[in-house]
Automatic annotation (TrEMBL):
EC category: hydrolase
Lineage of the organism: Bacteria, Bacillati, Actinomycetota, Actinomycetes, Propionibacteriales
Keyword Hydrolase: yes
Chain ranges of the Aminopeptidase N-like N-terminal domain: 22-194
PANTHER family (UniProt xref): PROTEASE M1 ZINC METALLOPROTEASE (PTHR11533), PUROMYCIN-SENSITIVE AMINOPEPTIDASE-RELATED (PTHR11533:SF174)
Protein name: Aminopeptidase N
The entry's keywords: Aminopeptidase, Hydrolase, Metal-binding, Metalloprotease, Protease, Zinc
Catalysed reaction, written as an equation: Release of an N-terminal amino acid, Xaa-|-Yaa- from a peptide, amide or arylamide. Xaa is preferably Ala, but may be most amino acids including Pro (slow action). When a terminal hydrophobic residue is followed by a prolyl residue, the two may be released as an intact Xaa-Pro dipeptide
InterPro entries: Aminopeptidase_N-like_N, Aminopeptidase_N-like_N_sf, Peptidase_M1, Peptidase_M1_aminopeptidases, Peptidase_M1_dom, Peptidase_M4/M1_CTD_sf
Residue stretches making up the Peptidase M1 membrane alanine aminopeptidase domain: 236-429
Family to which this protein belongs: Belongs to the peptidase M1 family.
The protein's Enzyme Commission number: 3.4.11.2
């Protein structure tokens, strides 16, 4: 039997390189009590390679019906958390298809040996979706590869009394009987792992300030959240947006939302146009504040400009970690250079067995990727100077927003933008395991 495709070797059994999805239209009905999901997903597909087969990723949920427009569907089958669509005849590249999948079941996370669990997960009273890097198939059929970005429309019908927050702009909210309907549109291209739905007994909290650019901000949280904690955590978020817009360029989406769950969370969650924090992370100390900065920075580095393959994760996490240090300096704390030299000394005492440009799936989210990635950027900044460095970051986002990139793209862009041989400068940081010295 013909094996199923893998689009990225860091994530075996996910993604089909034979096609790309241009748009997802998700129509979902969810009963919070009982954890029951019924959905219809309509995928607008463009064929990339001549094929008689399309493979969708869908985990733990039952496929009830499949329909294909633009080609004749011979059969569909479920195999190893995937849906295999076999066509009567081979379709040529650039063929446009519409695939409609009706499905149902009780969603739950998927667990990968090296990556842990991810996906749709029940909270004490609601739902959290943490999909990075392999959890999207737990709630909708998709082509689960980071380089396949699409626009989205998502409709949620949920038990009345529950608030839904998802990617993009809320287009409609209405109540009818025992349910409420929420409709969101994410028009900018989005990778599957960044799609999310947060469901809980939430309310919109009053904003404590707005950025000068007018970027719309929201904070959605439990009504009984402590007000002093809220002010300590998010009282300066509008200033943070202003700083990052100045350093990185305009905020890349229509708005930004923060969701605070009633439950504690070990780490915050990154999604396109929104971030999710546990109640335990709503504090004013540096360990909490840096995470607020980190997740906000991902809107530029990771969500607007997205890696093409998982081995280049430093292009997300190194940039977001460096943004923590930038906010520290801009907000009156330690300088970025002080943070850099502190973490350089700390890394010097750890094992030197990590290759930043290809850490492997086991170390993809190792803290050394974050810190060494940030140090790589600081070494570049110290070499080319502040003016060239921040101009480079702004042009990087401006030219690649909505697209997918690899490390070589950044090196080429940085070299052209600064006039320095950036590839040679950063080679030891990226392609060798020994820790280089920081420039003076």
């Amino acid at each position: 039997m013909r094996g199923l495709p893998t689009a990225d070797d860091y994530l075996p059994g996910h993604g089909d390189p034979a096609y790309a999805v241009r748009h997802y239209d998700l129509d979902l009905t969810y009963a919070v009590e009982g954890n029951r999901l019924t959905g219809q997903a309509t995928l607008s597909v463009r064929v990339l390679e001549a094929t008689r087969r399309l493979v969708l990723d869908l985990a733990h949920l039952r496929v009830d019906k499949v329909r294909v427009t633009g080609a004749r569907l011979a059969k569909h089958s479920a195999r190893s958390g995937r849906v295999v669509l076999t066509l009567d005849d081979e379709v040529a590249p650039d063929t446009l298809l519409t695939v409609v999948v009706r499905y149902s079941g009780s969603p739950r996370p998927v667990v990968e040996r090296h990556l842990g669990d991810a996906g749709w997960e029940e909270l004490t009273d609601g739902v959290i979706v943490a999909a990075q890097p392999h959890g999207s198939p737990t709630w909708f059929p998709c082509n689960d590869r980071p380089d396949d970005k699409a626009s989205y429309r998502m409709t949620f019908r949920v038990t009345a009394g529950y608030h839904v927050v998802a990617n993009g702009v809320l287009r409609e909210h209405r109540r009818g009987g025992s349910s409420e309907t929420w409709v969101f549109e994410q028009s900018e291209p989005m990778a599957t792992y960044l799609a999310t739905a947060q469901i809980g007994r939430y309310t919109d909290w009053q904003l404590l300030g707005r950025p000068a650019s007018g970027t719309p901000l929201r904070v959605v949280a439990p009504e009984d959240l402590d007000e002093d904690d809220y002010v300590a955590a998010f009282g300066r978020q509008h200033e943070m947006v202003e700083v990052f817009e100045r350093l990185f360029g305009p905020y890349p989406f229509d708005g930004y939302a923060v969701v605070v769950t009633a439950d504690d969370l070990e780490i915050p969650l990154e999604s396109q146009s929104l971030s999710t924090f546990g109640r335990n992370l709503v504090r004013g100390d540096w360990d909490a504040t840096r995470l607020i900065a980190h997740e906000l920075a991902h809107q530029w580095f990771g969500n607007a400009v997205t890696l093409r393959r998982w081995r280049d994760i430093w292009l997300h996490e190194g940039f977001a970690c460096y943004s923590e240090w930038l906010w520290s300096q801009e907000s009156g704390g330690q300088s970025a250079d002080e943070h850099a030299r502190h973490h350089h000394a700390r890394l010097a005492g750890l094992d030197h067995d990590l290759l930043l440009s290809d850490p492997g799936p086991e170390l993809m989210f190792d803290d050394r990727v974050y810190k060494r990635g940030a140090l790589t950027l600081h070494a570049l900044r110290l070499t080319v100077g502040d003016e060239a460095f921040f101009a480079l970051l702004r042009s990087w986002v401006a030219e690649h927003a909505g697209g997918s990139v690899v490390t070589d793209d950044f090196l080429a862009h940085a070299g052209a933008a600064t006039g320095h041989d950036v590839a040679a400068l950063l080679h030891p940081w990226l392609h060798e395991t020994a820790l280089p010295d920081l420039p003076a």
